[in-house]
């Protein structure tokens, strides 16, 4: 409601408003309705408008009414309305300072006197008083009138007794007032009123919190002398009061159990202990010995929250003391035991506490103390906090460097006893049988922690720290120290506990994951002085444009050159060392060329050389040949480029494979490695050599993806071997991820044996095994015959021999069964690895299609990709196969067929492309599914796009219209007649076969993209409007013709006489199509008629009706027969389309007139128009028949009246037999009523009422059913 409306209303009156103006001014009254709205925006708008209105008018009666409405609204029954009225009252008192706060406070007390209210009104009155005090506080004027402050505090003290309604709200309001009241007002007015509550501070948590707030706000007033007078001691936290404080803390913890928050009392006591220098007493006695000794529950969680909240308040020594105490152990025990999903977890809250502390703290020592404290909390050697704890991103650079140094020192000197080590109850019970090494667990976590620091891009780390972490992990992964060396910092400190093989395996995995993190690290913001800011640096480079991996390789070379100080874990052989040295030489050559001019190809080759060189430390046997081939390949590539510049070629080199082909083979072999880093580098390298890729190299890639050549791949051996090696490692490693759970896995082996035995029992017994079993039994005479007596049993020795033979036989059979299972598992693993390998190879195909979309070599990808998609469609429904199919289909359809970059030089390959188009369309017609046919049809349209090419550039003098027409008719190198014949053959196949993989949408897309071909095919589509094999095909022919007619480009191409001739053909086909014969109630026929009518409707819009008047008459006569064939409803797709068509002929849809039935009786409906039953009425057969009521009169009168009743019943259509029974019943009832009329009539009425109830119950039950 705007105030301008109010002003306008007042101007129109022109007279002094009477006393009843409040009732007339609806705008003013609507403000109060909006204040109670549930929407906060509406409430705020109403408040602003109300204040503006009162300022502009300044009427005393309106101000009085406003105060009354606002005071009344404080106790509104709707909870949403109370804050609105309270806020409005506070803003009103703040705006109009002439209003007396005392008078308003008196009105609130009188209106909402909860002491005198009835039981139903106590709750609303209590809320009214509370929100009234809040309004006075929000006005900002309450502290100018001390008596009002005193009255509010006293009223709040009385409201604390209404805890069942207000909970802790009065105490919170009192704390807010004390937090802002001046010390002078507190000393002169409030101290005397609150003295009793403060003197009894140890009785309730609320009173103690009141005292703590007063102590914090008014230290001059509440000096130690007054505190001693109030409590008997000058300090609140002492040995005498610590027990009382502990009990109050327990009550406060249980009071906020459902809210899951930290009580304010606990934090205030902690702050008081710091001011009174009694923190150790409070923490040890109240928290450790008090709260933690209780049964597990709210007191423990309060202690954990208090620990997190205390981090910013404590000094460095206090932080170290708290983080190494019992509270941390209990927190770790909670984290270990709360692994199940349904249990409450405190770890996320603690992470928020630590993150907030680190983000707000600038002290490096405190940050380091907190991180070390939480990292030192270990469960049997394994830290409780996760290795990817993201709080590290808030550390200062100096604190991060010190934290990394602590991690490295702990890795070298893993003293688990010096850490805060603990074990849960169940872990302590099974400690004797535990075989896990705490040192291994701790080192595994530290390595993962270092890797997570490297992987998190939010961590503030410099290049030097990155290299230090990488060098540390690399050194301890592949080298051991002999003697300390000043040039190698990692050798200055030796390992106290040697590394075991499991730790080495973890280090290897973590190191190559760390290399991937280094590769993906973002570029540093600061650039050196010598490098321009705008100059871009490639990924994985440092500020001086050198590769991070190259620095690491230099470090490895330094280690290899100092055998007196260090020695590798697996020393290189002479051949491997020679390959390593040659790799360094190749990288040095590439770096020299990079100084002359940077190129992506050069950088990619460096990355590939360095990465393969680092993998020599992991698997030298597998990558030695790859590295040698890579070196020769790069050398040949550089020689080729030099010879091209000099225009010299060698005939001998023509017989050797081209370097690009060798490079592609190397990349394919490298992709067999299970490394994401190698996969990314291979993509980068292939992207750089894409311009040099030839047909043979591309064929090598597609051969890997060929489903028919799965068994011929040599690279699969590498994949399987690598997978086997990797699957030997997690035997003990995977268990460490579950070490903090309480459930044991001791019965895993037994369960596996049980499953194997059950599987053997379920399998069918082998026939050879049966024969062997029979032989053993025959040899030992264990099979009895009819001739043998039952007394001839085997002796003990024979039984023992028989048992041995049977056990040997069954053990051999068990081994055979297990071998079969292992073979099946191996085959399944090989399939999974092969599919994973092919998905990686698809990366290369995608890179080539994106980078070289305009190359003629792309045409060689069409058929292999289509064949692969077709085969994958028939494969299983495994998730990995479906992912592979989805990826291949996306590359083919989106990256290849729909790409804006395509091959435009097709003059020399016209015949080849036309033959390929014919081949694809012929294949598409033979496919069993439309989903596969869609890709073949897309490939055919892509070939037409290649043949068409871009339109030729024209001179500027040509007219725009002629240029547009030329572009429409332009088809480039397309043989229009031949291509149209190919698609016409496909269209005829679609229309003449019941089951065809082709769809209407395919031809519609072709009509839209190539209007010239659409013009060639429209005549064929028109013929099949009537000659289609089924109604479905005839309807689809109508759809195709309709889409062609609606295409504006087609209309331009067929303008004039061709368009008129085409319309004549379509109209002739429609006339024949509307002559329906046979059964007309079929759904297919009805759908066909709908599509035909839609085509007819579009035709009548586009044809010149004056020239086709004769054809229109025949069409009109054919349309008029449709209502006779189909029973039209009131509305529907068929009916609406039909009348839309007939509207073109001037025939409108008839309107049905409403006929009112005559009062005395209407005419009977005709047979053609049967009368409709009115809705809501029961049929006659379902209506309840009325029975005549018995008359309470003498028998003679009843006998005389009986015939008349019978006559009336007969007139109603009752049968004679029923009439006799009814008359007899009536007579009997009349005789019986003569004896006791009153009693009998009452019984009859009761029976009738009972029958009515039963009938109602039956109807209700029937409705429910």
TrEMBL record:
Instruction: Give the source's domain of life in one word.
Output: Eukaryota
State any GO CC term. Answer: nucleolus
Q: Where in the cell is it found?
A: Nucleus
**Feature: compositional bias, Acidic residues:** 733-764
The answer, when asked if Electron transport is one of the entry's keywords, is no
* UniProt cross-references to SUPFAM superfamilies, sorted A to Z: ARM repeat
Locate the coiled-coil region(s) and give their ranges. 627-654
The record's Pfam families line, in alphabetical order, gives: DNA_pol_phi
Chain segments carrying region Disordered = 727-764, 1153-1265
Question: Which terms are listed as keywords in the entry?
Answer: Coiled coil, Nucleus
Q: What stretches pass through the bilayer?
A: none
Q: Where is the composition biased (Basic residues)?
A: 1215-1224, 1249-1259
Q: Which GO terms of the molecular function aspect are on file? A: RNA binding; sequence-specific DNA binding; transcription corepressor activity
- In which family does this protein belong, per the annotation? Belongs to the MYBBP1A family.
> What name goes with this protein?
MYB binding protein (P160) 1a
């Amino acid at each position: 409601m705007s105030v301008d409306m109010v002003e306008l209303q007042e101007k129109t009156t022109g007279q002094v408003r009477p006393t009843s103006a409040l009732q007339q001014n609806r705008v003013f009254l609507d403000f109060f309705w909006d204040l109670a709205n549930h929407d906060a925006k509406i409430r705020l708008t109403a408040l602003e408008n109300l204040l503006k209105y009162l300022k502009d008018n300044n009427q005393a009666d309106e101000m009085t009414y406003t105060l009354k409405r606002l005071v009344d609204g404080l106790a509104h029954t709707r909870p949403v309305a109370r804050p609105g009225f309270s806020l409005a009252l506070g803003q009103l008192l703040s705006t109009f300072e002439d209003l007396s706060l005392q008078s308003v406070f008196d009105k609130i007390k009188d209106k909402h006197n909860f002491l005198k209210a009835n039981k139903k009104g106590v709750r609303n009155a209590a809320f009214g008083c509370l929100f009234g005090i809040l309004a006075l506080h929000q006005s900002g004027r309450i502290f100018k009138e001390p008596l009002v402050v005193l009255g509010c505090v006293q009223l709040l003290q009385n409201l604390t007794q209404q805890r069942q309604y207000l909970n802790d709200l009065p105490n919170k309001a009192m704390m807010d007032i004390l937090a802002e009241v001046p010390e002078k007002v507190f000393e002169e007015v409030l101290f005397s009123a609150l003295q009793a509550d403060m003197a009894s501070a140890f009785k309730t948590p609320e009173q103690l919190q009141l005292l703590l707030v007063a102590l914090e706000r008014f230290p001059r007033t509440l000096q130690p002398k007054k505190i001693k007078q109030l409590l008997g001691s000058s300090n609140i936290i002492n040995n005498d009061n610590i027990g009382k404080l502990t009990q109050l803390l327990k009550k406060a913890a249980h009071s906020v159990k459902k809210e899951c928050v930290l009580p304010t009392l606990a934090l205030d006591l902690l702050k008081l202990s710091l001011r009174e220098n009694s923190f150790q007493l409070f923490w040890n006695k109240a928290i450790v010995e008090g709260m933690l000794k209780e049964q597990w529950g709210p007191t423990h969680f309060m202690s954990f929250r208090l620990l997190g909240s205390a981090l910013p308040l404590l000094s460095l020594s206090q932080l170290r003391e708290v983080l190494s105490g019992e509270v941390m152990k209990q927190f770790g025990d909670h984290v270990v035991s709360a692994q199940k999903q349904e249990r409450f977890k405190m770890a996320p809250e603690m992470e928020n506490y630590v993150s907030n502390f680190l983000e707000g703290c600038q002290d490096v020592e405190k940050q380091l103390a907190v991180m070390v404290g939480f990292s030192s909390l270990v469960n049997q050697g394994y830290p409780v906090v996760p290795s990817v704890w993201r709080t590290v991103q808030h550390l200062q650079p100096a604190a991060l460097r010190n934290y990394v140094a602590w991690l490295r020192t702990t890795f070298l000197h893993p003293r688990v006893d010096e850490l805060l080590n603990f074990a849960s109850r169940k872990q302590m019970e099974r400690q004797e049988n535990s075989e896990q090494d705490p040192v291994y667990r701790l080192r595994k976590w530290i390595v993962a922690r270092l890797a997570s620091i490297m992987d998190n891009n939010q961590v503030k780390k410099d290049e030097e720290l990155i290299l230090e972490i990488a060098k540390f992990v690399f050194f301890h992964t592949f080298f051991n120290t002999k003697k300390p060396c000043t040039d190698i910092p990692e050798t200055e400190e030796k390992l106290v506990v040697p590394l075991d093989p499991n730790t080495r395996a973890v280090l290897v995995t973590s190191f190559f994951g760390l290399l991937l993190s280094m590769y993906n690290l973002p570029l540093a913001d600061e650039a050196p002085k010598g490098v321009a800011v705008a100059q871009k640096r490639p990924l994985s480079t440092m500020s001086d444009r050198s590769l991070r991996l190259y620095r690491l390789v230099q470090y490895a070379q330094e280690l290899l050159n100092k055998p007196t100080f260090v020695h590798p874990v697996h020393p290189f052989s002479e051949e491997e060392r020679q390959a390593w040295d040659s790799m360094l030489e190749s990288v040095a050559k590439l770096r020299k060329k990079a100084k002359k001019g940077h190129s992506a190809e050069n950088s990619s080759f460096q990355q590939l050389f360095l990465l393969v060189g680092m993998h020599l430390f992991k698997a030298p046997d597998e990558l030695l040949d790859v590295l040698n081939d890579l070196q020769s390949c790069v050398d040949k590539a550089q020689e080729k480029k030099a010879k091209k510049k000099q225009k010299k070629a060698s005939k001998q080199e023509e017989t050797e494979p081209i370097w690009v082909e060798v490079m592609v083979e190397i990349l394919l072999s490298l992709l067999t490695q299970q490394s994401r880093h190698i996969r990314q580098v291979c993509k980068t390298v292939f992207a750089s050599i894409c311009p040099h890729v030839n047909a043979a190299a591309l064929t090598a890639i597609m051969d890997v993806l060929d489903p028919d050549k799965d068994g011929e791949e040599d690279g699969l051996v590498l994949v399987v071997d690598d997978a086997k090696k990797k699957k030997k490692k997690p035997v003990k490693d995977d268990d460490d991820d579950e070490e903090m759970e309480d459930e044991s896995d001791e019965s895993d082996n037994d369960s596996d044996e049980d499953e194997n035995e059950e599987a053997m029992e379920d399998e069918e017994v082998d026939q050879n095994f049966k024969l062997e079993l029979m032989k053993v039994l025959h040899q030992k005479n264990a099979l009895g015959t009819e001739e043998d007596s039952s007394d001839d049993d085997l002796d003990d020795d024979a039984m023992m021999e028989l048992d041995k033979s049977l056990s040997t036989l069954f053990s051999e059979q068990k081994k055979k069964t297990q071998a079969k299972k292992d073979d099946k598992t191996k085959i399944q693993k090989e399939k999974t690895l092969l599919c994973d390998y092919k998905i990686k190879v698809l990366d290369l195909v995608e890179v080539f299609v994106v980078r070289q979309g305009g190359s003629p070599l792309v045409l060689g990808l069409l058929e292999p990709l289509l064949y692969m998609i077709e085969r994958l469609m028939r494969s299983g429904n495994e998730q990995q196969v479906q992912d592979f199919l989805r990826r291949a289909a996306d590359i083919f359809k989106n990256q290849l067929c729909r790409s804006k970059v395509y091959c435009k030089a097709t003059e020399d390959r016209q015949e080849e492309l036309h033959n390929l188009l014919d081949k694809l369309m012929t294949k598409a017609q033979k496919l069993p599914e439309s989903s596969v046919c869609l890709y073949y049809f897309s490939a055919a349209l892509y070939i037409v796009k290649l043949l068409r090419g871009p339109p030729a550039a024209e001179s500027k003098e040509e007219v725009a219209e002629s240029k547009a027409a030329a572009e429409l008719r332009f088809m480039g190198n397309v043989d229009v007649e031949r291509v149209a014949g190919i698609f016409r053959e496909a269209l005829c196949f679609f229309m003449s076969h019941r089951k065809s993989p082709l769809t209407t949408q395919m031809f519609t897309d072709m009509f839209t993209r190539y209007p010239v071909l659409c013009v060639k095919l429209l005549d064929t589509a028109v013929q099949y409007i009537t000659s289609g094999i089924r109604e479905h095909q005839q309807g689809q022919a109508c759809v195709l013709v309709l889409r062609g007619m609606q295409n504006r480009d087609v209309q331009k191409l067929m303008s004039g006489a061709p368009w008129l001739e085409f319309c004549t053909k379509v109209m002739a086909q429609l006339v024949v199509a509307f002559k329906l014969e046979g059964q007309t109630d079929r759904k297919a026929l009805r759908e066909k008629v709908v599509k035909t009518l839609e085509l007819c409707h579009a035709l009548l819009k586009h044809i010149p009706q004056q020239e086709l008047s004769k054809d229109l008459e025949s069409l009109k006569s054919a349309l008029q027969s449709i209502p006779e064939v189909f029973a039209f409803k009131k509305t529907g797709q068929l009916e609406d389309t039909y009348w839309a068509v007939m509207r073109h002929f001037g025939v409108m849809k008839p309107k049905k007139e409403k006929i009112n039935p005559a009062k005395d009786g209407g005419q009977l409906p005709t047979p053609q128009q049967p009368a409709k039953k009115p809705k809501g009425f029961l049929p006659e057969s379902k209506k309840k028949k009325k029975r005549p009521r018995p008359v309470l009169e003498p028998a003679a009168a009843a006998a005389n009246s009986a015939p008349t009743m019978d006559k009336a019943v007969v007139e109603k259509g009752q049968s004679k037999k029923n009439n006799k029974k009814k008359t007899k019943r009536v007579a009997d009832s009349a005789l019986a009523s003569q004896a006791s009329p009153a009693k009998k009539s009452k019984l009859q009425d009761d029976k009738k009422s009972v029958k009515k109830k039963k009938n109602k119950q039956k109807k209700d039950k029937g409705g429910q059913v």
